[in-house]
Specification:
The chain is an alpha+beta fold. The protein has one domain (21-94). It is built from 2 helices and 5 strands. The strands form 2 sheets. The chain has a 3-stranded mixed β-sheet, with helices on one face. Strands 4-5 form a two-stranded antiparallel ribbon.
Length: 100
């Protein structure tokens, strides 16, 4: 029993931690932001609010819906980049089912 617990502890320690990459998108071009999200699958994109420049905004953006949780989908969103006011990206949003 002790060997099993020891093996589980060693395995848990040896598994690498998957950190999500973070980017300040206002220093990047739109193409570079889209490439970074595509390359990583998901990334935290950070930028200053257009309404209040002292406010830092951020969110998790994804390559496609496979990087979203169950009950979510990848919806179109926009972030300000160095070369574009509205660079198209995707972020996860809750699915909403309407009963008509």
């Amino acid at each position: 029993m002790k060997r099993i617990i020891l093996a589980l502890c060693v395995t848990a320690i040896s598994v690498p931690a998957f950190a999500i990459n973070r980017y300040n998108v206002q220093t990047m071009t739109c193409g570079a932001v889209q490439s970074a999200v595509d390359r990583n699958g998901a990334a935290i994109l950070r930028y200053r609010s257009t309404r209040n420049p002292s406010l830092q905004l951020y969110d998790r953006y994804v390559r496609n819906g496979l990087y979203c949780d169950v009950g979510e989908y990848a919806k179109r969103a926009y972030v300000p980049t160095r070369d574009r006011k509205n660079c198209p990206v995707r972020k996860c949003a809750d699915l909403e089912f309407y009963n008509d």
